[in-house]
């Protein structure tokens, strides 16, 4: 795993979690697994530390608050990982906020929405994200950290990779 030698200068990765994810552990464990959000937060911090990166782990059940986290990230994050949960499938406001970020943005889901109900097949987040990692449980988050770290270490970091639609 590539380490980041100049970790002090690199802004943290924002990991933003949407509605009902605060109840992970007890919420439909057959779909979302048994890890709590607190446990996921710890695992993410450890994984990022291995890359010389820090994390800011956030959760809200409110759409507007998620938009505010994304706006804040413009100035204070090196990359964003977002599980917008139910808002993934409905929120133009979250799409618009992601469009404003000039950072790598990885969409994550614990489950694989493509294998579930039709209404979960549309992702407004995916329309603006750099990439998406879904269906791998907690590993979706950990692989997203690896993806942000690889992005920050590579030549893409200096380019704007997300196209306007
Ligand atoms: C989810 C998938 C969404 O469809 C759902 O509304 C969630 C969780 C996931 O991580 O698998 O709340 O984002």
Summarize the structure.
The chain has 165 residues and is of the alpha/beta class. It contains five helices and five strands, in the order βααβαβαββα.
Topology:
Elements: E1 13-17, H1 29-32, H2 37-50, E2 55-59, H3 63-76, E3 79-83, H4 92-99, E4 105-109, E5 131-134, H5 138-153
Parallel strand pairs: 1-2, 1-3, 3-4, 4-5
Helix pairs in contact: 2-5, 3-4
Bound molecules: 1,3,4-trihydroxy-5-OXO-cyclohexanecarboxylic acid.
Query: Sheet with the most strands?
Result: 5 strands, parallel
Terminal residue distance = 34 Å
* Low-confidence blocks of residues: 1-7, 160-165
Beta strand count: 5
Multimerization status: single chain
- Mean pLDDT level: 92
Ions, cofactors and other bound molecules: 1,3,4-trihydroxy-5-OXO-cyclohexanecarboxylic acid
List SSEs in N-to-C order. Answer: EHHEHEHEEH
The proportion of residues forming helix, as a percent range, comes to 25-40%
Defining key terms:
single chain; 165 residues; 5 helices; 5 strands; 15% strand; globular; disordered C terminus
Characterization of the model:
- The protein is of the alpha/beta class and 165 residues long.
- It has five helices and five strands.
- Strands 2-1-3-4-5 form a five-stranded parallel sheet, with helices on both faces.
- Strand 3, helix 4 (92-99) and strand 4 (105-109) form a beta-alpha-beta unit.
- Helix 2 runs parallel beside helix 5 (138-153) and helix 3 (63-76) packs parallel to helix 4.
- It is globular and about 40 Å long.
- The N and C termini lie far apart (34 Å).
- 38% of the residues are buried.
- Residues 1-7 and 160-165 have low confidence and may be disordered.
- 1,3,4-trihydroxy-5-OXO-cyclohexanecarboxylic acid binds next to loops.
């Amino acid at each position: 795993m590539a380490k980041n030698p100049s970790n002090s200068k690199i802004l943290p990765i924002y990991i933003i979690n949407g509605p009902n994810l605060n109840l992970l552990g007890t919420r439909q464990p057959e779909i979302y697994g048994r890890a709590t959000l607190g446990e996921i937060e710890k695992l993410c911090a450890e994984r990022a530390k291995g890359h010389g990166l820090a994390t800011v782990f956030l959760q809200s059940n409110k759409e507007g608050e998620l938009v505010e986290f994304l706006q804040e990230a413009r100035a204070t994050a090196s990359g964003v990982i977002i599980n917008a949960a139910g808002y993934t499938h409905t929120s133009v406001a979250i799409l618009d906020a992601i469009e404003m970020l000039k950072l790598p943005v990885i969409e994550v889901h614990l489950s694989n929405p493509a294998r579930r109900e039709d209404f979960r097949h549309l992702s407004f987040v995916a329309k603006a994200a750099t990439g998406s990692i879904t269906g791998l449980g907690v590993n979706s988050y950990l692989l997203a950290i690896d993806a942000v770290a690889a992005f920050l270490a590579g030549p893409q970091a200096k380019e704007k990779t997300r196209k306007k639609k």
